[in-house]
Structures are given as structure tokens and as C-alpha cells.
Amino acid sequence: MSRGHFYARLEESDWKFVRRVASMQSFDAAIVKAPYLADYPESDSRHGQPTDRLTEALGERGFSWALDPATALFGHPRAAEWASPRARSCPMAAALPLPWDPGLIIGDDEAALELLSRAEAIQRNATAFSVPYLEVRKPGEGHLEANCSLIGMGAELAGDRRVLAYLQTLRGELLRGRAIEAARRMIAAGAQTIAIRIRSLRPESLEDIVAYLELVAFIEDRGVRAVADSVGLLGPTLVAGGADAFSSGARYFQAVPKTLLSRWQEPDHHHEEDAEDRGGGRPILYQVPGTLIETPHQELDDSVAACPVEGCKASAPGAGRRERRDHNLHDFKRRGREAAALGYGYADVLRTLPGDRPAVWARALDQVAERRRAV
Ligand SMILES: [Zn+2]
């Protein structure tokens, strides 16, 4: 049965939030993007500032964390020109010439080991060992083989930590069943936890959600943990279908970015994960408990359901961004627990919620549950 864990996808500046507000009811553990741990380049106004404040704060507050190596972009054909100076300052970026060549990772053990040891050095305090990865694309391009080769070698470096492998791929690969084939090979290579990242997923599409649920069930049936990464309010549905955990941020990281890499000089508004690096970013909405609705805090009034989490200050007078951030996270955590306890029966909860998406997600759970009963 799913543990229904919720992993907070924290933003770079969240160390203040973690230190002052986050509690054990906010989230179970955190996922930290590798570029956040890299030195700020000289062109950055934060040059010289410490880069371990987030992981330090997590450690101080007793949270465990895992790394997202976030290396898929280095396989983009234009990585050398388009990657931001910050992304390139990540020690892993320079382990191999840009763009990363899957053939080099497969064929040159020394290059692969250099990459893995750089990855290891930035996640010594993490709970799992996260393996650097490329985006899995069409068969024959070598990306999956490169990932599997790194997983196999990484298993030796992991020691007693779990081997956490990322399966980042495109919606089309999910729908064609090739994501399942990729998961099968990653498990054979030694993956013990698979963080799933589906680019261009359509959460309103029944076909997409059924395929995602089948991928999750395939992984869990093999005794490997599936983590639905950056899925926002879809997360509890995937947990109901067996995912061990899901991750989301309080405002960003609620979907995998549509673009693998956008030219950094021309900010791409779809690429929201990096928006906070440019300061500001969009406001944090309030997740209305018991619905799949988010609302601006200005619209909070008595008609909006109160949060059942004890001590929640999101709707108290004077509540600010930190209180709303904490609320959205503990709201995810609470929903994940509920979905894990109900399993496929979570469809009944979804059917009571307003809007089109919950109805689609309920049908997807029903379909997959029925197929599995028939086997
Ligand atoms: Zn709350």
C-alpha cells in the first residue's frame, strides 16, 4: 500500500520559510534542485552568498531531502548556448562537454564516474542517492541506455542509501507504453525509487491519467517506489493508484515544465520553475480544502472552506505568503494521506468535487482498478 508521502518541491529562497514556519505537518521530506546548491556566477547579484542555506535549514528542522540532479537540459542540442550561467555553474554540468552525448556516458566509464562523483559530492547529506539523468526520448537515441548505465554505476556509490532514478519523458512516450519499458529497464539496472516526470502531460485527459496510473502500478508491482514528481493537485490521485509519494511546490513545481530548455536571455513564462530566480514570480494562491480550486487570498471570505489542519494560519488576519505557502504544502500532505488510505476508492471522493478534472481522474482510477481486477 502507498505510504502517501508528500515531498515539498522547495524554492531556492525557501530556507527562511523552512527555518521560521515549516513544521512536521507541512511536508514529509523535500526535493531540492541541484542548481540551487551551485555557486552563484559572477554575473549574479547573489555572487558570494552561501548556497547551502536551504539544505542546512532542512537539516536543522529535522527534514530529510533528496536531490533532483535536474540534468535533463544538458542533453538539449543547444545546451552550450542556452543554459543559464547558474545552470552551468552546477558542478555536474562541466563533467562532460555540452550538450551531453549519451554515447560518451555509455562508452566512457571514466567520464561517467566523474559525473557520478560530482553528483555524490553535492548530496552527501541527502537520504537517497539521486542519479543524474537525461530525458528519455525515442528508442535508439541512447538516452535510456545512458541513464541505465549511470544507475548501475551509481548503485555502487550509493552505499546504504536508496538509488533514486528519474524517469523524465514526453507525454507521447507515456501514451505509447514506452515509459513502462523505460521503467522496466531502469529497475533492472538497479533503480529502487523512480521519480516520474512527464513533460506536456495533459491532466484533463483521461488517456493521460490512465497511462500514468498504469506506469505507477507497473513500478509498484515490482517492489520499487514510484514518486509522481511535480504534479500538483493531481498527486493524490496518483497516490491512490499506488504511487509511494508525490511532489509539488506551493506555487511552482506543480507541473513539469513544457520546455526542456528555454534560452535563458529570453525568459519563457512556461518555464516557471526558474521564475523565482529572477525575483518576484507569481503570487501564492490559496488551495481551498476539500476542492481542487485555488483562489487569490484577496478572495478569502467566509464562503471558502476553512483548513482542517490544526494551527493553520493561512486565513488568520495578517497572514502572508509564508502562511499561505505552509497551508498549500500541508494541504497536499493531508490529501496524499487521505488518498493513500482509500486507494482506488479515492475515486468516490473525487466524484464529489466540483469541476471537470476530478471527474476525469475518478474515471481513470475506476478504469485502472477494473483492469487490475480482471487480470
Ligand atoms: Zn491549512
| Helical proportion, percent range | 25-40%
Structural class: alpha/beta
Instruction: Show unreliable segments.
Output: 266-273
Order of strands side by side in the largest beta sheet? 3-2-1-8-7-6-5-4
Q: Note the gap between the termini.
A: 19 Å
Catalogue the ligands: zinc ion
CATH class type: Alpha Beta
Mean pLDDT: 92
Q: Total number of helical segments?
A: 14
Shape: globular
Number of domains: 1
Q: Provide the β-strand percentage band.
A: 5-15%
Which assembly state applies to the chains in this document? single chain
Largest sheet: 8 strands, parallel
Radius of gyration: 20 Å
CATH architecture: Alpha-Beta Barrel
Q: What is the CATH third-level topology name? A: TIM Barrel
Write down the secondary-structure element order.
EHEHEHHHHEHEHHEHEHEEEHHH
Number of strands: 10
Task: Explain briefly what this protein structure is.
By secondary structure, the protein is an alpha/beta fold.
Polypeptide structure, described:
- Helix 6 crosses helix 7, helix 7 runs parallel beside helix 9 and helix 9 packs parallel to helix 10.
- The protein is globular.
- With 375 residues, the chain is α/β, with parallel strands linked by helices.
- Strand 1, helix 1 and strand 2 form a beta-alpha-beta unit.
- The chain has one domain: TIM Barrel, CATH 3.20.20.
- The protein starts with a strand and ends with a helix.
- The structure holds zinc ion.
- The site of zinc ion has 7 residues, from helix 12.
